[in-house]
């Protein structure tokens, strides 16, 4: 089913496919639903509407009412129901239409899901995935544009994952569903329609990407750029421009926010001596702030030739007008500017 | 009579050093019976034809003074010589009792108004309730000695709810409640010592000391939940899992009169009804949400009707048989695929909301005393058993003594067991994961976490 919807275009290279992030997520869920009877999906519009963003397209038709459940608009209620189902032996995927609405249910995510295994000293695991689009979209204004990466990543007991491309989406979602712990899976609405090449091996039904491991998307020697989700793409674009000016950037895709792969960043910084973090969220108490603190506490600090630079969203609620919205988020030119400032070129 | 009882109660309180009003006269006498031999005046029993023993002697004249007799003065006490030769065939094996009719909402009929009770069941319910009672009183004691810290929400007064529900469901059914959870932790199978050791924060506690009063778990028992109302969607989720797995199990999901106004309850009621989840929602209405009486908190105090489109029952929560019959009725309803049902149990807690609440600023001591003397669940059952010759005073006293001993031993364990080892501080963050490193309080402190 998902295969037939895949944007399938053989590029010049042998053994690669072009798949959108949406289809990668869809495929991953389809395969995991097939593999394990205990897996089911619930959320608003996930079944008969095929998903608010069509991520669950075709699944209800294939698996029916029992496995794909449309809920009323009751985030706190259905998130709690999902957690209870996980406690009683099922493996729910709980979709929030966007993570902004997860705030209604955040008590269930943190107090009922994240903390329970610890509070019960190992008696009660909670194998659940909370997924949905996170962060800014386009023109949806302040209440629908917040990034929750820092909020969830603050809490022990949760794993927080933020894929960028289709391979990330597929591998990390399968890993999240197979994980026996609560995983917050932060997607990005603007990435859903973006196609990426996927390797042959990523098509295996058992292809998973380990949670907690970052990926070096581009090797470089002058400066390290660390990012997650959509802004990894911005970093790569910036790196391409900078390469023409003789600045060689290493770009790291975090993939997982919590537990963060600090070793990967440290290893890179010890090589390049310069670090810039890039995120869509607000600066205060954010992902970049955490990376700065961790670098300072570790061996890489002594390898820094300049303080770490954070590139973040502007510290304001997201405005609506296009020009204002564009200038509220990191653009490629902001990354290029920050890199040059950090390198003092 | 009431004044007489109050005088006796106060006198006995002074003797035993407890504060007035906290316990019924019969409880105090039970407490004193460890030190002196006592008999409580046997009720004038309706002696069934098959009983062979003589009718009991009338109570001694002179009131309290004569009840407190010395050990040597044994020969004129009723039953003293009969104990050794009492045989089981003397007891009534089974009796049927009239129980209060339940108010119903959206139901054609309610639970039966007569309940059968065998001697074995009676003794078992007695034992369960008395154990919970003594365990909670022991927790009170330990808390006052500062051996238990933090939150401690005691269940004494509400024992019939836990005992009655457990009597009506199977061990394979599921149950989840809020923070006043020690009673259910016991009825769902956790030992007294594991409960008390969890309260005292020791490694032998059911959650190895990491959970405390509000976070105890057992198979098919999901705690113990600290956030008011959050357990209700969880319970519906457990019921969803039962339905999903087709195992004919149900989930009993408890909440209080305070939680009854939480929005997430109504979200849950909607989904449970929509999907016909096999969930019994039980509102333990003990008339006060912390310090706020039900009239001050709820526009409608008919909690059994608050589910609107969900059928409901209002049940006498101080009568274990009433609770049992209602819970059976509710369980059958769910298992028949009719969807959820709400049970409001009208009950009462003797203690305040928690150990930091004396419980008398928002209600009168007279009110508490009245419930103790007229509606105590253990006394109610005891009177039924005795007046129907289903058990003897001595037998029940023997059970009381055994329970005291068990609770005392458990408390011994709970106070002597060591605290959890510091090496295990960071364990149990994740399930089924390789060990990970956890940051300590400073960057040089790298701790280890094992699943």
Question: Can you describe this structure in just a few lines?
Answer:
The complex is a heterodimer of chains A (345) and B (451). Chain A contains 13 helices and 14 strands. Chain A is of the alpha/beta class and 345 residues long.
Topology:
The complex is a heterodimer of chains A (345) and B (451).
Chain A: H1 2-5, E1 16-20, H2 21-35, E2 39-43, H3 59-63, E3 68-70, H4 75-87, E4 91-95, H5 99-114, H6 116-119, E5 129-133, H7 149-153, E6 159-161, H8 166-178, E7 183-187, E8 195-199, E9 215-218, E10 223-227, H9 230-244, E11 249-253, E12 256-258, H10 262-272, E13 275-278, H11 287-297, E14 309-311, H12 322-326, H13 332-343
Parallel strand pairs in A: 2-3, 2-4, 4-5, 5-7, 6-7, 10-11, 10-13, 13-14
Antiparallel strand pairs in A: 1-8, 6-12, 9-11
Chain B: H1 2-16, H2 25-32, H3 64-67, E1 94-98, E2 103-105, E3 114-118, H4 119-144, H5 159-168, E4 174-176, H6 182-187, H7 192-199, H8 231-245, E5 251-256, H9 263-274, E6 279-285, E7 288-289, E8 292-293, H10 294-297, E9 312-316, H11 320-335, E10 341-346, H12 365-375, H13 377-387, H14 393-416, E11 436-439, E12 446-449
Parallel strand pairs in B: 4-5, 5-6, 6-10, 9-10
Antiparallel strand pairs in B: 1-3, 2-9, 7-8, 11-12
Helix pairs in contact in B: 1-2, 4-5, 4-13, 4-14, 5-11, 7-14, 8-9
Task: Supply Rg of chain A.
Answer: 20 Å
Enumerate the spans of chain A where pLDDT stays under 50 for 5 or more consecutive residues: 1-12
Helix content of chain B: 25-40%
Number of DSSP E strands of chain A: 14
| Bulk shape of chain A | globular
Q: Roughly how many Å apart are the termini of chain A?
A: 52 Å
Class by alpha and beta content of chain A: alpha/beta
* Average residue pLDDT of chain A: 95
Which H/E pattern describes the elements of chain A? HEHEHEHEHHEHEHEEEEHEEHEHEHH
Largest sheet of chain B: 6 strands, mixed
Largest interface: A-B, 43 and 50 residues
Pfam family, one (chain A): Transketolase_C
Keywords (chain A): Carbohydrate metabolism, Glucose metabolism, Metal-binding, Mitochondrion, Oxidoreductase, Potassium, Pyruvate, Thiamine pyrophosphate, Transit peptide
Catalytic activity (chain A): N(6)-[(R)-lipoyl]-L-lysyl-[protein] + pyruvate + H(+) = N(6)-[(R)-S(8)-acetyldihydrolipoyl]-L-lysyl-[protein] + CO2
Organism (chain A): Poecilia latipinna
